[in-house]
């Protein structure tokens, strides 16, 4: 029975982590594509201001009113940032750095002045503790369900519904805002709606992973997906997969090493980002190195084909179309010259007859295309 209970607790923790990642990916993908992903960091800090203001007005520590108030505080952060940027005297990154520390500081001061005895802990808001989500539950039928699981499940469904309903509009507003305005799609309104959902997700997540770790889930899985594909719908799928994998592997490693669960989940998102950066099939470092190596080798064969073609049939053919001449005229060492000749031979572009080199009809055609791409040169 104890084993079953522990397994159930582990499942609850991983589900909450996965839902935080999925909900964050759904909104974070557009923030990453717009180049405004650091707004999530500003929102993650400024919601403390919204939480305190809502408590001062309603004395509610949780519930939809608090989520809405904190979400509006996130939108206020963005509004003030855009207001500073509109003056053209402050750049956007500087404006973000000016606005959210002010709101966060005001929130902390109000918390210490007027809500000192209330259970609103700034440490918990920023860092959270996902390992304790199973202690705060509500009853659904015959089951006790973590409150964070319900709140994150609701935010995930809300974010998914928003993305599905306005997918075309969001896509157009993200990639071509001018065209979206011309078509009357109100990209500014869509952006603020997206930020409102981002703020709501941050508030729903702070009990579990904390606002700071929420930022990792907003930025890193979409960024990882961006390294793997250029298709928007695939970015969502890859980002969701990274979120789930980070939640499961992060929990397992945190238990094995006795470290912070939420912190390890965030670390695992970074691990997956590094893997995509290194081994991504298109933009990964290894793939780019292999492509450059392949292109370099291809260019070496093209250079050899042109060299042989230019001297073919001329009086200097016997001296130029030999391996020894490649070292003298193309500045290739012996090993490189032999290697290029071998690759050309394997591709049936060159025939080697002792030291002499001769183009095949296929190699000759390649050289003609290089020297005269328009095809005007006679055969």
TrEMBL record:
Major localisation: membrane
A Pfam family: ABC-3
Topology in the lipid bilayer: Multi-pass membrane protein
Domain of life of the source: Bacteria
Biological process terms in GO annotation: response to zinc ion; transmembrane transport
Keywords: Cell membrane, Membrane, Transmembrane, Transmembrane helix, Transport
Subcellular localization(s) per the UniProt record: Cell membrane
Cellular component, GO annotation: ATP-binding cassette (ABC) transporter complex
TM regions (residue ranges): 12-32, 39-58, 64-85, 94-115, 149-167, 179-197, 203-220, 232-257, 263-285
InterPro entries reported for this sequence: ABC_BtuC-like, ABC_TroCD
Family, as annotated: Belongs to the ABC-3 integral membrane protein family.
Protein name in UniProt: Zinc ABC transporter permease
Lineage: Bacteria, Pseudomonadati, Pseudomonadota, Gammaproteobacteria, Oceanospirillales
């Amino acid at each position: 029975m104890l084993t079953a209970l522990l397994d159930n607790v582990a499942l609850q923790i991983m589900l909450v982590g996965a839902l935080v990642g999925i909900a964050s990916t759904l909104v974070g993908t557009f923030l990453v594509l717009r180049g405004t992903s650091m707004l999530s960091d500003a929102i993650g800090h400024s919601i403390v201001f919204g939480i305190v203001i809502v408590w001062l007005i309603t004395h509610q520590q949780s519930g939809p009113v608090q989520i809405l108030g904190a979400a509006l505080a996130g939108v206020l952060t963005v509004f003030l940032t855009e207001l500073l940027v509109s003056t053209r005297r402050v750049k956007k990154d500087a404006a973000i750095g000016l606005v959210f520390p002010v709101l966060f500081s005001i929130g902390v001061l109000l918390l210490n002045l007027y809500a000192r005895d209330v259970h609103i802990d700034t440490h918990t808001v920023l860092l959270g503790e996902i390992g304790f989500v199973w202690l705060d539950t509500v009853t659904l039928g015959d089951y006790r369900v973590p409150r964070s699981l319900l709140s994150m499940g609701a935010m995930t469904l809300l974010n998914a519904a928003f993305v599905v309903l306005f997918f075309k509009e969001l896509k157009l507003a993200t990639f071509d805002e001018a065209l979206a305005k011309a078509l009357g799609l109100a990209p500014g309104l869509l952006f603020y709606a997206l930020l409102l959902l981002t703020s709501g997700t941050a508030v729903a997540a702070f009990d579990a992973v904390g606002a700071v770790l929420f930022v990792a889930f907003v930025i890193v899985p979409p960024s990882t997906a961006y390294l793997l594909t250029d298709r928007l719908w695939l970015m969502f799928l890859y980002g969701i997969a990274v979120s789930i994998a980070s939640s499961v592997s992060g929990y397992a490693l945190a238990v094995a090493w006795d470290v912070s669960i939420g912190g390890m989940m965030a670390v695992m998102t970074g691990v997956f980002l590094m893997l995509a950066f290194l081994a991504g099939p298109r933009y990964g470092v290894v793939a780019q190195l292999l492509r450059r190596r392949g292109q370099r080798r291809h260019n070496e064969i093209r250079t050899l084909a042109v060299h042989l073609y230019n001297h073919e049939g001329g009086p200097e053919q016997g001296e130029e179309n030999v391996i020894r001449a490649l070292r003298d005229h193309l500045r290739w060492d012996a090993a490189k010259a032999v290697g290029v000749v071998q690759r050309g031979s394997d591709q049936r572009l060159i025939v080697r007859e002792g030291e002499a080199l001769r183009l095949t009809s296929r190699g000759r055609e390649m050289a003609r295309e290089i020297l005269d791409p328009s095809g005007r040169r006679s055969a």
